[in-house]
Amino acid sequence: MIERKFVADKLNEFQVQEYIASTLNKAGHSRIEIKKTPLGEKIIVYTTRPGLIVGRKGENIKKLTVVLKKKFKMENPQIEIADIDEPLLNAGAVADRIVFTFERYGTKRFKFTGYDTLSKILDAGALGAEIVVSGKLPGSRSKTWRFQAGHLKKSGDIAENYMSKSTVTALLKTGIIGVQVTILPPSVKLPDHIEIKEPEKKPEIKVEEVEEVPGDLKEVMEESKEEPEEPKKDTKKKSNEEKKPKKEIKKKTSAKKSKK
After folding, report:
1. Are residues 111 and 159 located together in one domain of the fold?
2. pLDDT, tens only, 201-236
3. pTM of the prediction?
């Protein structure tokens, strides 16, 4: 029973996404997200032209909320519009632009549109891109044209989870034309990518230049540095005098007085 409930919820979400995509076919929408909140269902529509989706005074959003309540039995659907930062790196926005040009100008210049959009995607910074156009292009028989440039992953984890993919159909008088766009964004890190780190630069030792001192000042500075030597005292004489007895010293003084 629980599994059937999960399957029914996912099927209902898919039908809601399909209905919104069909009603907003020419409004430049990229993808739709449905989130469940305590207040109700939150529906986020990513687009490059939010003005067309909102309409005059929010008429389109009001109509969508009424249809979601009646047809899909949603209690409180809240529709939000989110703007795409880089439309050239979003596969849905690029595919919608190609379909718009086919429906307005026809498929006579489909090669120019394919190569032109491919070069713009690579200029925006994408690592690789591929555009596949199939259907009754100028001619009676259906053909498939592939425009590819850069690096792409066809299988593996990166191809399934990290690449931007979109498939859109254009309704023309001659028939239906399918457009499939695949983009590898620059934010994806490939497993075979190698980064070469530059060696760290050692800090440069700054040597300050000292001005030359004139000759006269040099002599003065050297003389000030040289301290005068103290005269050496005769310690031997003092030691001999100290050793002599006091009597001899008295005799010498008396002899000097007699001479006078």
Report:
1. yes
2. 777 777 666 555 555 555 656 666 555 555 555 555
3. 0.64
How many other CB atoms are there within 10 angstroms of residue 128's CB atom? 18
- Position 252 in a domain: no
Determine how β-strand 78-83 pairs with β-strand 41-47: parallel
Q: Which helix (H) or strand (E) holds 17?
A: helix 2-23
Cβ atoms 112, 182 nearer than 8 A:
no
Quote the distance between the C-alpha of residue 106 and its chain's center.
38
What's 188's DSSP letter? P
In angstroms, the Cα distances linking 75 to 4, 40, 42, 63 are: 21, 6, 11, 15
**Edge-to-edge strand order for the sheet containing 41-47?**
29-36, 41-47, 78-83
Same domain, 46 and 98: no
How far is the CA of 234 from the CAs of 100, 241, 242, in angstroms? 117, 12, 13
Q: Which residues are within 8 A (CB) of 37 and not within 5 positions of it... i.e. 6 or more apart?
A: 78
